[in-house]
Specification:
heterodimer, A: about 375 residues, alpha+beta, Cytochrome-c3 Hydrogenase, chain B, three-stranded antiparallel β-sheet, 15 helices, 10 strands, B: about 325 residues, mainly alpha, 13 helices, globular
Chain lengths: ~375, ~325
């Protein structure tokens, strides 16, 4: 079934000739839509006058499906929200469950959560930075970024057996303790990481063409970023120093010394650069966590397999690679949640596209979309 | 009559040469790109994957040749040939050995600059006739870009012509002296950059723009017609590399005879490798940046080169 595209508006140019806007359908199958986004772009020559994202191509009804599953069975569902960073949705969901049911988490489990989620941040940002390279035609940048991501994914494979959907964070702790020598592997990989990230910085962000393509493109000012609920690197690229790890600190983050990088101009360059420096900061956090971690339980002892929280509701959020990721749960006392709602940062950030795109060319449109870093598993849910 | 026969024979030979160059070129590009990206490139088909391109070609020939419903059928079908033929023709004037070119004419340099420009029409045709917005945008970009970059390219080549005092490539190569390389260094760089833009390769591959226009003017082509577009790209690389080494690097110099031909080919491969290297390292420019770069950087540079040569010539 064809979806009706809005009728074309006839416009007259200076000489009175009737000209038509070109309506270009970008996606859902297009190399630069980062999944299954569809954009209806109105073009005046090459310049975008209107860009309207059409979402829902990856809607699986995960929030509704959750209502028919037990609390533990929902964890694999959350993997499939943000499939570039599964650990975050795992953790945000588990924090909401723990708050709802009043479950305490052993310290070692919290350390493992911090380590895996900071590794995940590097992996996720590498996907985003690599895609920025691919969007601007620097495919080698994509390969180099994916090489960095691969190191992290290999660690996750050793830890959880999966490369994409980890299902590692569970209510009350984590699925299993780290295998022997895994923490040493993490230390080795993280130790090599800053040099590799600096290489990416030189290869791409130092390049004159890349700077030309990214600087001044899709400028988001502070007021708009705040008003539209932007979060994560999209907001921080505009200079909004809002990071839940600092501003509503959770888990063990108060114990670590790290900085929150912010941009100045709020363009695609700043957003991508913030992602790169966040990855460096993540390395710092992981190294501190590795120094502090002690042996112990990784799962709250005596936790029943079938959780039945008392009637009530709970919301908790964490800082994912895309921003403030929140999960709201309502319990009616049964083993299944009455309602689950995910506050998706990718969804809120994607809403900025119609604001940022007009006035830029079609080449910039894909760069702007990439700089918002949407993951459609999380947008469509 | 014999001229016609010779022409047809050359056409056949040029077609085969370009096909072989494309076979080798695609393999070489994959290998070089593989090294750049920490990969191996093709390995399985034939020794060191040499036959990979052949396998791909067989696949492409066997694939269905689709003409979209909205396409202007006749223009759509003819476009690949309009792009390919001029590039093949431009090979005719290249002096492969000292004193010999397949088509030895007194305006050879002009011929080489002018004839490939006809390709623009093919790109426009292909883009327009596909009946697809992406293809149309790609065709328009390609046309604007190729027409603009002809200016610095011609100016750069002109500096060598001024030094040699002839438009005849065979004569030009005969008069070559080693210090020309130094005297026309700036021109060589300008020639190389504008040639890359002229053949629509990265970082100037706006007309294809994989991440924006999917494949631009040949987005709808499939099978053998798509393969012809690909062959044109490698044919252009071949022509630009060969002519670049003739004009700016003295062709077979310092050797002559059969060894000279080998030297010429080695120089051409080196230039082609540079073109591949650039493509796989740099991001793509935006249309407006591309134009600004052409008119505010390359064209003045080419003029400076012409000025340098103009200052040198009276002292000869």
């Amino acid at each position: 079934m064809a979806i009706e595209v809005e009728s074309r508006t006839p416009v007259h140019d200076e000489d009175g000739r009737a000209v038509e806007e070109l309506v270009l359908n970008v996606g859902p199958a297009h190399p630069s839509t980062h999944g299954v986004c569809r954009i209806i772009a109105h073009l005046d020559g090459e310049v975008v006058t209107r860009a309207e994202p059409v979402i829902g191509y990856l809607h699986r009804g995960i929030e509704k499906m959750a209502e028919n599953r037990t609390y533990l069975q929902i964890v694999p569902l959350t993997d499939r929200l943000d499939y570039v960073g599964s650990m975050y949705a795992n953790w945000a969901y588990c924090r909401a469950v723990e708050r709802l049911a009043g479950i305490g988490v052993p310290e070692r489990a919290e350390y493992l959560r911090v380590i895996t989620c900071e590794l995940q941040r590097i992996a996720s940002h590498m996907m985003s930075i690599g895609s920025t390279g691919a969007d601007t035609g620097a495919f080698t940048m994509f390969v180099y970024a994916f090489d960095v991501r691969e190191r992290v994914v290999e660690l996750f494979e050793a830890l959880t057996g999966s490369r994409l959907t980890y299902c590692y964070v569970r209510p009350g702790g984590v699925a299993a303790d780290a295998p022997e020598g895994w923490l040493d592997d993490v230390r080795r990989v993280v130790g090599e990481m800053p040099a590799r990230l600096a290489e990416l910085d030189r290869l791409f962000f130092g390049n004159v063409i890349a700077r030309g393509r990214l600087k001044g493109v899709g400028v988001l000012d502070v007021a708009t970023a705040v008003a539209w609920g932007a979060s994560g690197p999209v907001a921080r690229g505009s200079g909004v120093g809002w990071d839940l790890r600092k501003s509503d600190t959770y888990s063990l983050y108060p114990r670590f010394d790290f900085d929150v990088p912010v941009g100045e101009r709020g363009d695609a360059y700043d957003r991508a650069r913030v992602r790169l420096w966040e990855s460096v900061e993540s390395c710092r956090i992981i190294e501190q966590a590795l120094d502090q971690i002690e042996p112990g339980h990784v799962h709250a002892p005596g936790l029943p397999r079938l959780l039945k929280p008392r009637p009530g509701d709970a919301y908790d959020h964490i800082e994912s690679a895309r921003g403030s990721l929140g999960v709201y749960l309502v319990s009616d006392g049964s083993p299944r949640p009455y309602r689950m709602k995910v506050r998706s940062p990718a969804f809120c950030n994607l809403a900025l596209l119609p604001l940022l795109a007009p006035g830029h060319t079609i080449s910039d449109l894909v760069v702007i979309l990439g700089s918002l870093d949407p993951v459609f598993g999380e947008v469509d849910r | 009559m014999s001229g016609l026969l010779w022409g047809m024979l050359f056409g056949l030979l040029a077609g085969i040469a370009i096909a072989l160059a494309a076979l080798f070129g695609v393999w070489w590009e994959r290998k070089v790109a593989g090294r750049i990206q920490m990969r191996f490139g093709p390995q399985e088909a034939g020794p060191a994957g040499l036959l990979q391109t052949l396998a791909d070609t067989i696949k492409l020939v066997l694939k269905e040749d689709i003409t979209p419903r909205l396409a202007d059928r006749r223009l759509y079908r003819i476009a690949p040939l309009v792009v390919f033929t001029p590039v093949a023709m431009s090979l005719a004037v290249i002096p492969f050995a000292r004193g010999w070119a397949p088509f030895d004419t007194s305006v050879g340099v002009l011929f080489f600059l002018a004839v490939p420009s006809i390709s623009v029409l093919g790109i426009l045709l292909g883009g327009w006739a596909s009946g697809n917005s992406y293809a149309t945008l790609g065709g328009m970009r390609g046309a604007a870009q190729m027409v603009s970059y002809e200016v610095p390219r011609t100016l750069a080549v002109l500096s060598v012509v001024v030094l040699a005092g002839t438009l005849r490539p065979v004569l030009l190569l005969g008069r070559f002296q080693w210090w020309w390389i130094l005297a026309t260094l700036v021109g060589f760089v300008v020639y190389l950059i504008s040639s890359i833009a002229e053949m629509n390769r990265g970082p100037f591959d706006l007309a294809e723009a994989e991440s924006e226009l999917v494949a631009g003017y040949f987005a709808d082509y499939s099978g053998i017609r798509w393969a012809v577009f690909m062959m044109t790209e490698y044919g252009s690389v071949l022509a630009a590399s060969l002519f670049g080494s003739v004009l700016f690097l003295g062709g077979g110099w310092p050797l002559s005879g059969a060894l000279g031909v080998v030297v010429l080919l080695v120089k051409a491969v080196l230039i082609a490798t540079l073109i591949i290297w650039v493509k796989w390292t740099l991001p793509r420019m935006r249309a407006d940046q591309l134009m600004r770069f052409c008119w505010t950087v390359l064209t003045p540079l080419a003029l400076v080169q012409l000025l340098i040569v103009g200052a040198v010539v009276p002292w000869l």
